[in-house]
Design brief:
single chain; 268 residues; mainly alpha; Rossmann fold; 3 domains; two-stranded antiparallel sheet; 11% strand
Length: 268
């Protein structure tokens, strides 16, 4: 890159003019280190007019970066001591890089922001905080005309949606087509439990695992039929699983009583 720029005298002059401009306009800030000659350039990403300045000057900044004269800023996280973003977990890195990316690219007026499954790689705690960060980031009045469209399978995100500023649109695949699922008018899921969101929004009938959700229902159905052959077959197939489930369930879980009742009706 150096040799390429060196041969382009017009570009080289433009880079020198840009550096002189930074000095003359006092845009280079001295770092608080006694013997350091390093300077810092700061850009305001919130104020629209100042954000446009970054857009205009970015080509020159990129040339300086390629020449090794400037480096990108680093983000340091604070939690029981400091550590760099590169040292963070994949979830933390994904979270902060996406938020910083939004800060750097979204324009305040009439922007449409598309976010696809932001919960990927995020710990549940980060999922619970994600929309709060978005609200804080875009809560300024200058973003009043912006819209954010989030595609998600996270019940944590759904339960943090405020009804007065959001709308839920459900989608499902029908063959090769995508159909819109009608949601109850005026639905407000803010503060809903995981079970409420999964059942009423995602149409998940149970939050328990497949055996508990499907096989218990099947066993109860066969017991109610009174068919001894089917009951004996189920006894051989499911007795050990039922016994293990019964011991694993908490005493105050209503399902424990159901499983105990089933075990009295079947034998190994």
């Amino acid at each position: 890159q150096y040799l390429k720029i060196k041969e382009d005298r017009k570009l080289l002059q433009s880079i020198c003019d840009f550096c002189n401009k930074l000095v003359n306009e006092d845009k280079l800030e001295k770092l608080p280190y006694k013997y350091s000659s390093i300077r810092k350039i700061t850009y305001n990403l919130i104020e629209p007019s100042l954000f446009e300045r970054l857009n205009a000057e970015y080509p020159m900044l990129e040339h300086l970066r390629q020449l090794g004269m400037i480096s990108s800023p680093e983000i340091e996280l604070k939690r029981a001591g400091g550590y760099s973003l590169q040292e963070s977990s994949s979830g933390e890195y994904h979270f902060f890089s996406s938020i910083v990316g939004l800060m750097a690219t979204v324009k305040p007026t009439n922007s449409l922001v598309l976010i696809d499954e932001p919960e990927i790689s995020l710990h549940p705690n980060w999922q619970m905080k994600y929309l709060s960060f978005l609200r804080e980031l875009f809560g300024h009045s200058e973003y009043a005309t912006c819209h954010i469209l989030v595609a998600t399978h996270s019940h944590f995100l759904i339960s943090d949606l405020k009804g007065d500023s959001s709308k839920i649109i459900g989608l499902k695949r029908a063959g090769r087509e995508i159909e819109i699922i009608d949601m109850p008018k005026g639905i407000d899921t803010y503060g809903w439990s995981a079970e409420d969101v999964l059942y009423n929004v995602f149409n998940v009938l149970s939050t328990r695992n497949k055996f508990v959700a499907e096989d218990i229902a099947k066993i109860l159905n066969e017991l109610s039929s009174g068919d001894k052959n089917k009951i004996n077959k189920l006894s051989k197939e499911k007795y050990d699983e039922l016994l293990e489930l019964e011991s694993a369930l908490k005493e105050n879980d209503p399902l424990k009583r159901v499983v105990k009742t089933i075990l009295t009706k079947v034998s190994k």
